[in-house]
Predict the 3D structure of the following.
Amino acid sequence: MILIITPVYKAYDKVKEMCDAIDQFTVNPFLHILVDDDSNLTEPFPVEVTSNRRVILLKRDAIGSIHKNGGGQAIQIGYEWAHHAFINEHPNPLPYDHIFMIESDCIVKEDWDQKMIEIIPTLPEDWLTLDCQSVDAEGNLTYPTTVSVRLGFDREDLEIMQYPDFQSTLFNPKIFEAGIKFSDFPSHFDITFGKRTAELIGGKHYRTTCVEVLHYFYQSRQHLNEIPKT
């Protein structure tokens, strides 16, 4: 069983495509937790709850507040909810074998999870996170793959990254075993999380060149600087 956590921030026009791709292309049994990250939704959520999908709706931002730390808190809520001992009065089959984060504007491809999992035994022992390549609709590399800071290559198909992308990320369980939470940092995004996890438990962040996801990166990022109307 794998756990997939998806923070959703206004990228509603891609959420159904994202979920449909996960349903179609995921090989392993999974629980998918979507956390509606303060999106002021006035219409029904784009996807239904299913036997392996849950949706958590939040309303927590205030006028002029900085959004990112709340995003980390929302992701942590999803993580904690997925680790409850019971789900719908049935025992939760814990622990999860693998934990992923998939952004709401990332569309996975065939066998994406199994491909990532099969890379794990080939990774250096110090791995903390594993990301894959973000491509656009034409198959060209796109954000964040094109801008993330690289520290070099461990081998031809494995890049050493300064921090994880948080777009389609596989986490080493030792991060959570060490007690680290997404809500521990002023911003949950890539740079801060990556730096602090490396400092606290040691290790590196990697990206494989062998797996791709389609990334509509503008869908959620375009809303981050919006000022709520009074």
Observations:
- The CA atoms of residues 83 and 95 lie 8 Å apart.
- The chain is about 25% helix and 30% strand.
- Residues 2-221 form a domain with the Spore Coat Polysaccharide Biosynthesis Protein SpsA; Chain A fold (CATH 3.90.550.10).
- Residues 223-230 have pLDDT under 50 and may be disordered.
